[in-house]
Amino acid sequence: MNEVVAVEGAVTASGTGRILPNAAYRATADIGSKLVSVGFFVVMARMLGDSAFGVFTFGLSFAALVTVLAGFGQDAILTREVARDRRRVDRYFVNTIALKLAASLPVLGLAVASLFVLDVSSRTRTVATLLSVAILIELLTTTCFAVFQAYERLGFFPVVIISQRLFTAAVGIAAMLAGAGVEAVAGIYLAGSTLAFVLAMWLLFDRVVRPRLQIDGSTWWPLLRTALPVGVALVFQVTLFRVDAAILQIFEPNSVVGEYGAAYRLFESPLFVSWAVAAAAYPVFSRLADVGELRIVFERSLKLAVAAAMPFTVGAALLATPIVELLYGDEFEPSGRILVLLAPTIALYSFNHVSGVLLLSRNAQRMLAVLYGVMAVENIAANFATIPSYGMTAAAVNTTVTEALLFVGMAAVAMRFTGRVGWVRILAGPLLAAAVAAGLMALVRDSSLALAAVAGLAGYVIVLAGFEWIAFPDDVHAVTKFLGRAEPVA
After folding, report:
1. How many helices (H) and strands (E) does the chain have?
2. What is the pLDDT of residues 1-11, one digit of tens each?
3. Eight-class DSSP state of 71
């Protein structure tokens, strides 16, 4: 028993103590950016209509698919290796950017050219092209983020991300009010991505480190070979989250794609909690060698991610229709039903994403690629089999089923590296609190959306805090120690 307490105390100092503040910085970036982005997409859907919004949704899905080689795992390898030895930043930074451009530009060119061959409208073609370039630039920006992450300087994330989103939303909304169409909005999105890249580069070189800007082509193949399984896993992950809209576009009109996109935007918004925890935990996972310490940090990271995601899961399941009608209007009423079907994926994704980061930190990228590959094949087959008959309902159900299957696989593989984990420690508090929150929301949701949200959140926080204080006081102490800091950890 004393050995366990000693290990947990060491982890609090060297592991969890760094994860909590850095997760807070990343969460700040994502909360701010998601609030601005949701507002921007809501305004776009209302002002441009479901057809134009469907074109923008397709453009984003197309861009994510055709630029996937620019995010082919290189950043994950950079973060892992630089976290272990910061001198490696000179080797990895500029060569990662050069490799991204060399690998992605030919594919991007061919994909855009194919839009001229296929029966695609000029508006759709223009939007898809502009957004593809924008996403490519964003993927170059993530290389700067990878260095921030390796140095555990996640405080710069919100500076860059929120600045980009505010610029895009403010200028985009002003342009739409002046009568601009979806093509102009896509161009403004591109300008915002460029601004973010410039800002991230300035912060990196001025505030963190000045990597050597010497391209060495001999490092590309070793880097690509190491990153290849990570890239394959990311390709499959992007496929899981984007291919449904692309397949839906084949069988349904733009209006249906727009309705599905409206629900999907709301579903994606709370995923920032998983990204925040994973981004903070990854460099810590990468450094830890002791299995006991790794298990404790992994359990606490999972608990933090799942606990933060669960209120959004319950809220999306019980309050979907009034939320959609409030934000998008009656025209998007079918989107509420889709959001209910997607709701369980919010919590499932939080577990799967943190577990995936654990596998990367253990150099188990091949296992990760296999898991995502199997799930991608299952998802594509299910979508082609069911979307023609059941439309966007099938797409939403397939997403949730695939994420549930992935949960089973991730749990089995993760325990190969951590040993048996404490499932009660991870899940009992969030599940109990979620049940109470669901009951409170169900009681008052017909009278007031705001009251239901406040009551559910308050009940969740009180029950979760009380349970954890009684059952797992060491975990509560780790959180309160961070909240009580007089100064932030940069």
Report:
1. 16, 0
2. 444 444 444 44
3. G
